[in-house]
Design brief:
48% of the residues lie in helices and 7% in strands. The protein is mainly α. The chain has a three-stranded antiparallel sheet. A two-stranded antiparallel sheet has the order 1-2. Strands 6-9 form a two-stranded antiparallel sheet.
Amino acid sequence: MGEKNAKYQIDTEENQAFLADIREGLLNFGHRFPSPGGSSYYLGDDGTPWKERSRETWITSRMAHVYSLGCFLGHKGSEALADAALKGLMGELHDSKNGGWYAGLNADGSILPTKQCYAHAFVILAASSAVLAGRPGAQELLKEALIVYENHFWNEEEGLSCDTWNTEFTELSEYRGLNANMHTVEAFLAAADAIGNEEYRVRAERIIDHVLDWAIANNWRIPEHFTEDWQPDLECNKDRPDDQFKPYGATPGHGIEWARLITQWALSVPVFEERTGVVGESWRQPAKYIDAAEHLYNRAVEDAWNADGAPGIVYTTDWNGTPVVHDRMHWTLAEAINTSATLYRATGKEKYAEDYAQFMQYLDEKVLDHVNGSWFHQLDRNNQVIGTVWPGKSDLYHALQATLIPYYDPSVSIAPAVKRGLHTS
């Protein structure tokens, strides 16, 4: 792994061409996602819609975001595809009675119960990108998404978001989780960049500070699951270690993803200062946050990359860094590509460029589906394709962003960066 092949080296024409080819393939792969009502079908291995599966808000939101990016990239058909997903978010996935968005719809059109913080964060991301793409109804969607989030998920006193309500917003689960808060940081930064409301950048920082406190207390391995009063539940789902959304132990891919988002926030501090005229608070020390991001990334890579005799990033580890679930999920590789590039931009350290090259080679050799397109979503410890947690290819979000983030300004959310052409090289 990691031989000096220009195709895999950051800032080469060959690598940029490699990513451009992957990007166009991904955008072509996803064309069949919209259902008649706009909600996103789950895509199979060759991009065929799996119409017998549920159509979920978080996937539909991701596809709206992806094809808003496609609008900026000039991908043919992106406008209609983004509008289709927005139709789903403004129509059949929206709860006109209780407010907010259903978790999704079953194949027969019946409602999937609960209101998820995770899904609502993605509605904010989708709407922010669609506003920048000038899509009809996006402004109204973003306004409502922010209001719903404010009223039901954000806790101003805690500086964190809760996780799951019942459909009627009358009963709140005692579970608290960092996955939803991670995508909230992403959504808040996207909203701040899209509409210029810097309160969302401040809120992102409040979440980040909590996460870093917990990470430092656990040797830079981030707890994922918490009780109602935000006490870490380190044994959660020990009997179901590969749970799709709540796996046991540390999730190195999330440590890597947090590192990128923290770096983005830290690099965006000058934007905050320019827009607000506020400078000098002790809590805003960008170098401190970038250093913390390096610790998170390096801990996760040390624990998970090539941890069991084969290339790839293991899904989970215990609290000592020993692999628990050895499967490789495509999104962890996408985030490793993004974060190694982002830290290289932020620090100039050659180590991150070397990591990036290794991840690129692994992508090409093991994770890219060179026959059907897109990326294999789950491989076992021997890098054989399996589908026990992630059958098929649900969406394009992680993979598409991994073809863009390495070459765009890391201080700016990806949609405005692509729209404005804020290249790094």
